[in-house]
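Hi D.,

Good news: the full-assembly prediction came through. Inputs first.
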Amino acid sequence: MMFLYPSTTPYSRDCAINRYCAKFFLLLRISIIVCAAHAVHAEDIDSLALSPEQLFNATVMSVSKTAEKVMDAPAAVYVLTNEDIMRSGATSIPEALRLVPGVQVAQVNSNGWAISVRGFNSDLSNKLLVLIDGREVYDPLFSGVYWDVQDTVLEDIDRIEVVRGPGGTLWGDNAVNGVINIITKKATETQGNLASIVAGNHEKAIGEERYGGTFDDGGAWRAYGKFTDRGDNHALHGGNSHDSWQQGRGGFRADWDKIGTHDDSFTLQGDTYSSASGQMRFEPILTNGTNPLVKEYIDARGTNLLGRWKREFSDDSNLTVQSYVDYVYRDQLLIKDARTSADFDAQYEAPRVGAHKFTVGARYRYSEDELTATPDSTFLENRAHDQIANTFVQDKITLDPKTWFLTLGSKFEENSYSGFEIQPSARLQWHPDEQQMVWAAVSRAVRTPSRLEQDVRLVQATGFIGGLGVVTVDTVPNPNLYSEELVAYELGYRRELTPTASLDVAAFYNDYYKLATYTVSSQRPFGSILALAPTNSTTGETHGVEAMLDWRALDNLRLSASGSLLTMKLNGPTAVPNQTENQSPTFQGNLRAEWDITKDVAFDTMLYRVNALPAFQVPSYTRLDMRLGWRFAPDWQFDLVGQNLFNPEHPEFTSPTDGHVLATDIGTSIYGKLTCRF
Amino acid sequence: MPFLRRVSVFLAALLLGAQVHAADGLQLQEQQIKAGLLYNFLKYTNFPAPNFTNPGTITVCVFGDDPFSGNLQPIAGRTVNQREIALRTIHDIDAIANCQLLFVNKDEKSRWPQLHAALAGKNVLTVSDFEFFAAQGGMIEFGHVDNHIRVNLNMDALTAAGLRVEDRLLRLVTVVHGGSHE
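Then the structure:
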């Protein structure tokens, strides 16, 4: 039987035949953006009044429908689109997150970032959950995300959804202050060849190649390879900070849509990577009691494989089953760990029954790791396995059609770290008219103790004392540490000011209990003069406001502004709470202009302002990023990007008095990027 | 001021260009597009007159459940070529007698051969969105290419049923042959 649709032919081949084709796709993309700018809701359009030409030219709303859903959610949500990422000039996921209002992104050194939402920033922020295509990349050893190994072909990222505020009800543990969902495009949307190279003063070389094709049975696939080589930063006191890094990764994604009699969809995807980086660390030497500055090599590797199956029963009812295995390995002076996790998740969205719309889900996760002793670390158990089993139920109740909705839900969980946890939330939303939405929420979320806190002793420093010999200062584990708890109160307002301008404001008051704080412990290891153990001894509150304004001033000019205010007040037994308070800026904001000078030339400017971080003696700074993009031929694009321009080198997150890692400056980065799609 | 004029012409072209793109690049739900296309096929198809038992009405039938999520409903009561559109959902093959346009829900794919046989000799425009519909004797098949809806039109099936689609639409579809009643 002949196959009737030309969809099996990647459009690249068409492009080879017709050179105008690529231009067409560019126009198409621009028109989609322009269209989105007008914020025309598809529901408002009478498709019967459209001409056949308009109907054939119309884009089928699939992904953006989800995005629109997100924007209707009674939570502080921001969606960073592929367009936003490409225009930002960012070459990594953490750098792209700078654009997201209310997310604090601070670069620690060439290969490290501290990223948090609503305070508590740290190089391993433990209250922010991060997922890539449904795969959790939050590491339970340290409680945090190793941002250096979270990467892919940025062109293939569909969007990054950022939820500020607790997401424990839906996402589970550690979604205390926020959730970041990185979602890649379907393979059908990444057909053909994409190759790009980057060269610059700091981004020494980045090369990537992606190819997407189709299967005979109607499925589509893509595969990619990417290599990055980034240079050293400068140490705060001058000299080289030896934090350059090289990384290689590859992966694939295959999607089958509308298979079987029920139009099921199935996705299979996987990645593998290997990264070599470094930093300068003050290493405690137990043989002579000194803490010399040495180069720490970081060897990180990982492989993951994920499958997702979805059946749509109707427009508003579906079942999604997802499972993945994830292997991560990290070897550095401080600690060496190999972890394998297997995760199984099912979610069912039930059709609306009367005023009720239920969503239920269940998840099981098994994770085991093996720690290898380093001179810095010893542990209670070198092998450990953890399990999480949870279920959630949520009901979106229509109180009054189109105007009042109440969403009630809770997660119920049993886990190996802290036992039984309940994470409920209640969210009320009111749409006074089609242009406005007011929402309020109360929710509870927990951060489970990490394996490090419950299991690992780390030597922080050594010294030599006459009569005693070599002594150490240590952090020691507390197997009885409980989860940190948050009860959050949020209020939000969204408004379409004009058809081209929108406003989004959210305010929050967070009440924290049982925050883990390092306090003096009597459980001193042999030779230790001071041992600090985590205890649930700090309480605290934070409050703040985040606001953003988005304005399509002209069809080819988009302006946006955002700002967020934060106040933290922690009460604990030591100076540590005070330190934590001062690691997050009291204000940060950004201004952005995206300008299409012609249909082939775009110019983007981003200006960031971040207040001082007294904990690290980091002064406030203003950062300017610019990008000039030029599509000089249908298949070719050249980008010239400058980051941190007109600004002397400055630290973003490291302290000159840090006793562990050498503080580094973030300098100006200028690079050129050549992209070819064919 | 030639310079100013050039700038203003340039700006005008830019704005105009952007507007044209905006009109062309509509983003719609899949069922909205399909409902719109179905309506247009009704409008631009010439039905032989004798087929109409009720000359003032043209009947659109959905075979199986209505998959249009409410987007097809508004066509009921509209008029095309001086005939008022009636919209019906049918589940029995026997009920096709009064239909001028028959949309087959893709869940009813397995009953298509039966339905196809029952339609022999009738002037009914058949439409569906299951794969290979046109290759199996259906007339208008909705499919996807990238993010757009595309149509395969089986000219042999259409001609055999005594129907003619106007050029305005024919130019926009992919014409295929075969699979019609022998």
